[in-house]
Amino acid sequence: MTIAELHFHFLNSNGVCTDTRSLQKNQIYISLKGDNFNGNKFAKQALLDGARLAVIDEKEYEDDYTVLVDNALKTLQQLANYHRNYLNLPIIGLTGSNGKTTTKELINAVLSEKYVTVATKGNLNNHIGVPLTLLSMDTTTEIGIVEMGANHQGEIAMLCEIAQPNFGYITNFGKAHLEGFGGFEGVIKGKSELYNYLRDNEEMAFINDTDKLQVEKATGITLQTFGSTESNYPISLVNGSESLKLSFKETAINSQLIGIYNYTNIAVAIAMGTYFDLSIDQVKSGIEKYIPANNRSQIIKKDSYSIILDAYNANPTSMAAALENLKTTTTTTIAFIGNMFEVGVTSKAEHQAMLDLAHHLRIDQVYAIGPDFGTLAPHVNQEVYEDYNAFAKAYSNKIPTGATVLIKGSRGMKMERILNLLEN
C-alpha cells in the first residue's frame, strides 16, 4: 500500500492510534516498537477492537486488514508529512532550550482568537509526537503550531522535514540536554537546524533582535523581529516584578506569567498575532486569558506567603533565571531547588554554580536536593540533600510571613511534592 493509499484510508478513519488501550473504532493502528514493547503483538487485538487497519512491520503478525511495511514509525512520519502537504496550511515550528511549551501555548492562545488552530498537546514534541500533532489537523484547521524537542543533533532537522514549517522561532540557546548534544556548542548547532531549514526553503523566522547570537545564526533568513525599539514589533516590558505587564501600540497587556525570562515568550506571541492580522484587542485578549499550568511559572498565594512553582523542568539556564527572578522580590526569599538532569560531564560544576549564584544573590535560605547537589559543600544558609526522602525527613522549618518561595527542579525530581510538605 502506498502512502497516498494509506492517506485515503486515514481521511475516512477516526485518525491514528499507537496504543490499543486508547483505541477508538475506525482508527488506524500503528505498531510502534520500544525498548520494552512491540506494538506488532497488539495488531490483531486492535483489529478485533474495531481498528480500520493495522500497520505492522513484522511479517509474522500479518493478517486480514494489516498493512505490512518496512518500518511502522517511518510510515507514521511519512503519512504525517503527506497529510501536512495535503492540507497545505501555514505551520509554525518552535524549538529552543527553555520555554518551548509556554511559548507554544501563548501563541496558540493569541492566534485562536481569530483562527482555527491546532497546537502540540502537552510536550508531544518528538519523532512520534510531531507526526501525531500533524495528523490531528484537518481541513478546518487554519494554522498549525508544532513544538519540536530534541536532545541530540540531527533531531530538529528530521522533525523539520516532517513538519515543513513555514515560520520558525527558537526560544533561546540554553544549557539543556548538554549530555546528548555534546556541550553548549552542540546545543547551538542542534537548535539552529530549524534556522537551516527555514533558510534553505526560503521561509521566515521570528527573532528577538536583542539576542545577538540568534541574530548571527539567523543570517540569510527573512526575519520578523521584536525586542528592540528598532524592531518590527517594539514591545516593551512595563513591569517585571510580579505578573508581567507589556506594552505594544500604546496598549497595556497584562499577563498571568511571572519572571522577566517570560518576556520573550509573551512578546513573540504578540508579534505573531500582529503578523497574522489580529487586532491589538484580540492579541491582548489572548495573552490575558492564558493561565500557566502543569507546574510552569505558577504563582500560588498562601495565607501568609507566596510560592513560585516552576517544577516542570530545569537546566542551568532556566535555574539561573528562576533564582535571579526570585531575588527581584523585596521579601524574604527561600529556594527549594532540585537536581538538573542530562547536564553531562559538567554536571558537578553546573550544580555548584547554582549554589554560588544563590549565595551571590543573597537568597535567604536554599534547600538543594538531588544526587548532584548532595555531594557539594553548601554556603551559609544553604542545605544540601542527596535525595528527596532525606530532605523531607530533615525539614521542619516554618515559612516566614510574607516570604516568597521558589520551587524549581528537573521533572524527575517531582519537586511539586514540596507543596504537600509545606502544607503539613
Kindly describe this structure:
- This protein is α/β, with parallel strands linked by helices and 424 residues long.
- It has three domains: 73 residues, MurE/MurF, N-terminal domain (Udp-n-acetylmuramoylalanyl-d-glutamate--2,6- Diaminopimelate Ligase, Chain: A, domain 1, 3-Layer(aba) Sandwich); 194 residues, Mur-like, catalytic domain (UDP-N-acetylmuramoyl-L-alanine:D-glutamate ligase, 3-Layer(aba) Sandwich), CATH 3.40.1190; 126 residues, Protein-Tyrosine Phosphatase, Chain A.
- It is built from 17 helices and 21 strands.
- The chain has a six-stranded parallel beta sheet, with helices on both faces.
- Helix 3 runs parallel beside helix 5 and helix 13 packs parallel to helix 14.
- The longest helix has 16 residues.
- The chain is globular, with a radius of gyration of 23 Å.
- The protein starts with a helix and ends with a helix.
Number of strands: 21
Instruction: Please name the fourth-level CATH homologous superfamily of the largest domain.
Output: Mur-like, catalytic domain
Radius of gyration: 23 Å
Give the domain tally: 3
Summing up helix and strand content along with how strands pair, one would put the structural category as: alpha/beta
**Which CATH class of the largest domain applies here?**
Alpha Beta
- What name does CATH use for the topology of the largest domain? UDP-N-acetylmuramoyl-L-alanine:D-glutamate ligase
How far apart the termini lie comes to: 60 Å
